[in-house]
Structure formats: structure tokens, C-alpha cells
Write a structure and sequence with these properties.
5 domains, 22 strands, seven-stranded mixed sheet, Calcium-transporting ATPase, cytoplasmic transduction domain A, six-stranded antiparallel sheet, 773 residues, Rossmann fold, cell membrane, alpha+beta, elongated
Length: 773
């Protein structure tokens, strides 16, 4: 710390002294005081020799012989041949180059330091009516913590009261979010509202932010492979410079020429451009919620060609969600879901949480359950609104009714879990749940392929059927199912033998595979501590697309680093050749080298700017529209199966009054809810997306789907008018009705998925409960 503080003041002081001496000498020279001018310039040279010698000694202690040695030789050479102006210019070059590089490094690492400084050091713990401030190390799981306005959440926990949070430190998203009672909150986020209470679920040391801080402490300007590449440049550049200087002296007999060669071969800040670019890349990644252990991981990520991914929690949301609600004849799907959620709302089971979340997402009123009994492995039984309700596996198998058989068939094909609803002993419906595909997964994988990944592989311990279904949807090159942790490690090692490999996972069982990869990436937002500690990169937000952002940044930072070092070397070699021929005197060579060094460092700073390829910037108004229509999608999707169910009823029972009533219900849903939503998208959302997506053509196919949905809805309305006029459905209408209904369900299902993947995934900082695959 003392050395850093000294360096902070010494570098600007060296610039002031050398520039002051150069300026004073210039004034003396203009006034005709040549001796005074030479004295000032010689003093500037001597002042610069001392730190240059220190830099050389420090490098030799690390067993490196870099181009700082050339700086010392050129400074000493200018004194020997009395080229004091050239020596002063070199001194200014070294001082300004070091100061520029230090400023760049401070700017590039600002976000990493801010992350460390943001870490809380104490917490407010409530015991009864007493609130006391305790050291962070004393916080234990189960403690009730109070977080005041503007304070940092000290430990992971569950909210005891509603909160407004600023999660930008972890997610990179500037918008504040509202969290309800019972929702999980991660340490490190900031209370942007009034004080709230939190029930800690982990100690501070085991919480999210502590793990991120541990990684951030390691994230800095390490000697990445690209930086060692600069050292390798120096390994041949140094002897080459000495040889050229010696040859110039031998063949011309002029020591001045040799000194001129050494002067233009003094790119001391030049080779620092590579680490500046790497640290800049680390800084940009951290601002997006991607913590990278160091420059080596960033550089390797930029060279990766193969991506290996876990399924659960990486490509999928990692938690079950309701994909469909089926109702028995005479029941409404909304009522089936409401009763199931009412009974399940007090259960800690993961499926119960999914059912309750879906009901609240749809805005359903939940009744308080009475006489609740939960049987592990079977489900819950409770009294809801005066009815005895059972959710889970029924006490007796459901009757072999057509609707129940169809539900079981769909669950089997989709790999979904089934929670049956029984009311007063009679089957009333079922809820189908599965782990949904992330909305951002398809877009992210397309971006990763565009970034240079040629092979995408999925490793999962899940069954082959659901794994291959996801592989087909995402267009993966290989899918390996039924994998144990040992199998995953072997598969990753096999991929490494072919190419540089990145592994992404989030669970404890992924930690060995993450460690086996060239670069391990942990989904740290909900991932285990073990996987985060084994990884080289942690995504602090639950967004897979941040990996694509990080890869774009890594490739750009590495490209700029290599470009800066190589370009500077080539320019220096050309200047050395000119100096060896006697066409470039030492003073002019010093000025030229100054320009080369400053140019390449400024070029390296470009790694701080720009946006990831494929990244899309949205205005706040457009983001609000996307959130609004995404929420409407979640509400509407639950009603889509009624279109298919009406077709099934019509196909099974024929033109009956019940079928006619179901068709009228579907038509009402289409006219009153679905079509207004689609028209609003067409007139409000799509025009707002035209600019960020590049043109109106980006939404043209979705507009065509809107037109087809409206056409089929109108066709259904025409059939209903004919049926109502006759008082029945004409058998001649059946074929067209069936084809129209099945076609409408297919188009709607595909259209919803496409909109979610292409548009709504742009703003999803966490997988919504309603996301489906």
C-alpha cells in the first residue's frame, strides 16, 4: 500500500520535474544561454536515469530483461555524446509514458476497486425490540437483519418486508427493482427505498457478495499470456536493438548514430499497452456483472472455440415453472390453478412454490387454506372455500377419462411433472410443470457462434429425451445425457484436447468440470459457492447473455493488446533503421518515439469503450413497453391451451352443444383479450423496436404472424355466426373448424416463443416465472 501511494505521487512529480527542466532549457536556449540550457537538459536526463535504473533492477529480480534497459542505455548514451536535448526528450517520454499508463490502469481498475470498497463491514441485527450493530463475522443464518436506506445488504436472505433495491452492482442493470415479502435477496445489493427486514439464510462469508469480492481481489493486471507475449517481443527486441546500434557505430564510426538507434528503440510505455488493454477489458466486464479472476482468463476466453454447458440452471431456469393447466370437463383452468395454489401456498416444496407463483402472476385471488396436512412424497390436503382440496399424487388413481389420459400423455412427451387437483374426492384438473428453457438462451448461443465458438456441447445428468429436445431447439452440436460429475470431467478434457474449451455450470456437481476446462464460468447469481470458487469467471447476474458480452469484450481486448504491441514494435524498428543510416538525429528520434508510445497506449485504451457485438441499447420507454407486453404474455399464455382443448373436444364429441359453448368461450378470449394485445404490440411495441433492432424488417415476420392469428380468429367467428344462426354446428363445418383451431394453437404457441426469445429476452435480468420452452 505504501509503494502504491509513493508511486501515485512520484510519477506526476517526475513528469513535472522533467518537463520543467526541458522547458527551462528551451527558454535558456532561446535567450542565448547555451550552457544553462544544456545544464537543464542534462539535469532532466539524470533525474530520469535514477527511476529507469530502478525499473531495470526490479525487472531483473523477476528474471526479465525488458526494454527499460534500452532506456537506461539511451539516457546514458546521450550524456556521453553530449546530446542533452535528446536525453531530456527521452526523460519526458519515460515520465509521461509511465504517468499515462498509471492513469490508464487506475481508470481501468476503478470498477474493481469500487466493488471491494462497496463491501459492507457490519450489519444491524434485531433481537426482539432491540437493534444492534454487529461485525459482519457475527451474522448467522436465521438472524433477523435490518437494512436501512442506502445501506448494502450484508448477507443473503429472505425478505420479511417489501423492499426497493438497486441491484446494479451485481447485475449491471441501472433500474431499481421491487421485491415482495418472501423473495430471496442477495448480499451486495443496495436498499433504494425505506428500511426493511431480512431473514439471513447464510453467513456473510458464505453469501453471494463475499464470494464475488474474493474473486475481485484476484482480478487485476496479471501477467496474462498476451502480456507474456510482449515480454517475448522484448526478448528478441532488446538484442536486436543492441546489434543495430553496434553495427551503426562500427560501420559509421559515429557513436551518435548508435545513440540515435537506442533512443528510438526505447518504447518503455509501449509494452505496457498490452496490460492496459487487458485491464480495460476486465473493467468493462465487471461493469456488466461478469467477474473475471485475471488477465489470463480474459485472454483465454478470447481464444476459445468450444463451449460446454450444463443444462439445469444454465440453459434452463433451474427451477420448475407451470407450463400448462388442464381442467376436467365442467371446470375452468383459472379455477383449477387458484384452488391448487391456495392449498399449496404454505408448502415449502419447490413445485408448490412454482404453482403459487404462477397463480399470483396471473393475478388470481388465493384463499387461506384450513386444516392443512402435507404428506412427503404425496402432496397437500386442505380445506379451501369449504371444499376438501388435494394437490399432488391423488389418494386413488384418476379415472381413465379422456382428458386425464391426454394430460398424462402430454406430460410424458414433454418430460413434465404432474400435480393433480382433486376437489371433494373428484378429479378437477392437473398442473404440468417443467424446468423451462431460458428466454435468452437461443439469442445468446447465436451470439456466441458469431463471436467465434465453433462447437456447442451440452452435458447433463438429466434423461436423454428432454436433453435432446433442448439440443434440437438450440441447435447444439452435441448432447450428452445421464452424465455423472466424473463423466462431465472426462468429456471436458476430451474437448480440451481438440480446442480451447469454456465450461459453464451452476451446481456443486459442475465444480470439477469447471476446474478441468481452460476457462470455467459459474452462473453465480444462484449457483453454489463450490462452482463459483472453481470457476475463472462468475456471472453475478442470472443472465446467460452476459457470457456473450464477456466473450465479445475478451476478443476485442486481446485484439487491441496484440495490435498495440505489434504496431509499436514495427514503427520502432522502422525508426531504428532510419537512425542507423544517419537520417534521424537523437533529438528528432526522441520526439518520434514519444509520439509512437503515446499513440499505442491511447490505442490500448480503446478497450475501455464500445459495446459488445450484438448488444442492443434500449431507451427506458422501450424497456417499459417490453416489460409490459412480457407480463401480458405471461397472463395470456395460460389460456392458450383452451384453443387446443376446444379442438380436442370438437374432434372427440362432434358438433354438440358443449362443443359450441367451448368454441364461443375461445372466441371471446380471442376477441376480448388476445387480439387487442396483438394490435397493441403492432402499433406500440414494434415501432419502438425498429430503431434498436436496425430496421422495420426485424419485426416483419412477427407482424405476418399477427395477421395470420387475426385471419384465423375471424374465420372462427364466421363459423360461430353460422352455427348460432342455425342453433347448431353443421357437420360440414367440422373439418375447417378443426384445422383452423389446431393451426391457431400452433401459430400462437410458436409466435409467443419467438417474441420471448427475440424481444422480451432483451430486458430479462432474471428468468420470469412464466418463461416456457
Amino acid at each position: 500500500m505504501r509503494w502504491r501511494s509513493l508511486r501515485k505521487w512520484a510519477e506526476p512529480a517526475l513528469v513535472i520535474v522533467t518537463v520543467g527542466a526541458l522547458f527551462a532549457g528551451g527558454v535558456g536556449w532561446l535567450a542565448g544561454a547555451g550552457g544553462f540550457a544544456d545544464g537543464c537538459w542534462a539535469a532532466a536526463t539524470l533525474v530520469a536515469v535514477i527511476p529507469a535504473l530502478w525499473w531495470v533492477i526490479a525487472a531483473l529480480r523477476r528474471k526479465r530483461a525488458g526494454v527499460d534497459l534500452l532506456a537506461v542505455l539511451s539516457l546514458v548514451g546521450t550524456l556521453v555524446v553530449h546530446e542533452y536535448l535528446a536525453g531530456a526528450l527521452i526523460a519526458v517520454m519515460l515520465a509521461t509514458g509511465r504517468a499515462l499508463d498509471a492513469a490508464a490502469e487506475r481508470r481501468a481498475s476503478h470498477d474493481l476497486r469500487a466493488l471491494l470498497e462497496h463491501a459492507p463491514r457490519s450489519a444491524r441485527r434485531r433481537c426482539g425490540d432491540t437493534v444492534s450493530v454487529v461485525p459482519l463475522s457475527e451474522v448467522a443464518a436465521g438472524d433477523l437483519l435490518v437494512v436501512g436506506p442506502g445501506e448494502v445488504v450484508p448477507a443473503d436472505g429472505l425478505l420479511e418486508s417489501a423492499a426497493v433495491l438497486d441491484e446494479s452492482v451485481l447485475t449491471g442493470e441501472p433500474m431499481q427493482v421491487e421485491r415482495a415479502v418472501g423473495e430471496p435477496v442477495r448480499s451486495g445489493v443496495v436498499n433504494a427505498g425505506s428500511a426493511f427486514e431480512l431473514r439471513a439464510t447464510a453467513t456473510a462469508e458464505d453469501s453471494t457478495y463475499a464470494g464475488i469480492v474474493r474473486l475481485a481481489r484476484q482480478a487485476g493486471a496479471e501477467s496474462a499470456p498476451v502480456v507474456r507475449l510482449a515480454d517475448r517481443y522484448a526478448a528478441w527486441f532488446l538484442p536486436l536493438s543492441l546489434v543495430l546500434a553496434g553495427l551503426a557505430w562500427v560501420f559509421s564510426g559515429s557513436l551518435v548514430r548508435a545513440v540515435a538507434v537506442l533512443v528510438v528503440a526505447t518504447p518503455c510505455p509501449l509494452l505496457l499497452a498490452a496490460p492496459v488493454a487487458i485491464v480495460s477489458g476486465l473493467s468493462r466486464s465487471s461493469r456488466l456483472g461478469v467477474i473475471i479472476r485475471g488477465g489470463g482468463a480474459l485472454e483465454t476466453l478470447g481464444r476459445a472455440r468450444t463451449l460446454v454447458m450444463d443444462k439445469t440452471g444454465t440453459l434452463t431456469a433451474g427451477r420448475p415453472a407451470v407450463v400448462e393447466v388442464a381442467a376436467a370437463p365442467g371446470w375452468e383452468t383459472a379455477e383449477v390453478l387458484r384452488l391448487a395454489a391456495s392449498a399449496e401456498q404454505l408448502s415449502p416444496h419447490v413445485l408448490a412454490e412454482a404453482i403459487t407463483t404462477e397463480a399470483r402472476t396471473r393475478g388470481l385471488y388465493l384463499s387461506l387454506p384450513l386444516d392443512l396436512v402435507e404428506e412427503p412424497g404425496r402432496g397437500v390436503t386442505a380445506t379451501v372455500d369449504g371444499h376438501r382440496v388435494e394437490v399432488g399424487k391423488p389418494a386413488r388413481p384418476s379415472a381413465q377419462q379422456p382428458w386425464a389420459t391426454a394430460v398424462r400423455g402430454r406430460a410424458g412427451l414433454d418430460g413434465a411433472a404432474l400435480a393433480w387437483l382433486t376437489v371433494d374426492g373428484e378429479p378437477a384438473g392437473a398442473v404440468l410443470l417443467r424446468d423451462p428453457l431460458r428466454r435468452d438462451a437461443p439469442r445468446t448461443l447465436r451470439r456466441l457462434r458469431a463471436a467465434g465458438l465453433h462447437r456447442l456441447v451440452m452435458l447433463t445428468g438429466d434423461r436423454r429425451e428432454p436433453a435432446e429436445e433442448i439440443g434440437t431447439v438450440l441447435g447444439l452440436d452435441s448432447v450428452c445425457a445421464d452424465q455423472t460429475p466424473a463423466d462431465k470431467v472426462a468429456a471436458v478434457r476430451g474437448e480440451r484436447e481438440r480446442d480451447v474449451t469454456v465450461m459453464v455450470g451452476d451446481g456443486v456437481n459442475d465444480a470439477p468440470a469447471l476446474a478441468a476446462a481452460d476457462v470455467g464460468v459459474a452462473m453465480g447469481a444462484r449457483g453454489s459457492t463450490a462452482s463459483s470458487e472453481a470457476a475463472d469467471i462468475v456471472l453475478t447476474t442470472d443472465r446467460l447473455d452476459r457470457l456473450a458480452d464477456a466473450m465479445d469484450i475478451a476478443r476485442r481486448a486481446r485484439r487491441i493488446a496484440v495490435q498495440s504491441a505489434a504496431t509499436g514494435m514495427l514503427l520502432s524498428l522502422a525508426a531504428m533503421a532510419v537512425a542507423a543510416l544517419g537520417w534521424l538525429p537523437p533529438a528528432a528520434g526522441a520526439l518520434l518515439q514519444e509520439g509512437i508510445d503515446v499513440a499505442v497506449i491511447l490505442n490500448a485504451l480503446r478497450a475501455l469503450r464500445g459495446k459488445p457485438a450484438g448488444g442492443i441499447t434500449l431507451t427506458p420507454a422501450t424497456e417499459q413497453l417490453l416489460h409490459r407486453f412480457s407480463a401480458e404474455h405471461d397472463e395470456l399464455r395460460g389460456s392458450l391451451p383452451m384453443v387446443r382443448d376446444a379442438a380436442n373436444l370438437l374432434a372427440g364429441s362432434g358438433a354438440t352443444p358443449a362443443a359450441l359453448a367451448e368454441l364461443q368461450r375461445v372466441h371471446t378470449f380471442l376477441v376480448e383479450r388476445l387480439l387487442p394485445h396483438e394490435r397493441a404490440e403492432e402499433t406500440q411495441l414494434y415501432p419502438a423496436l425498429a430503431a434498436p433492432l436496425g430496421s422495420d424488417e426485424a419485426t416483419a415476420t412477427m407482424s405476418r404472424a399477427h395477421a395470420e392469428i387475426e385471419r384465423l380468429a375471424r374465420r372462427l367467428g364466421h363459423h360461430l355466426r353460422l352455427a348460432e344462426a342455425d342453433g347448431r354446428i353443421d357437420p360440414a363445418q367440422l373439418d375447417d373448424l378443426l384445422s383452423g383451431l389446431y393451426g391457431l394453437y400452433t401459430v400462437l404457441s410458436l409466435h409467443f416463443v419467438q417474441e420471448e426469445e427475440n424481444y422480451f429476452a432483451l430486458v430479462s435480468d432474471a428468468e420470469p416465472a412464466g418463461a416456457r420452452s
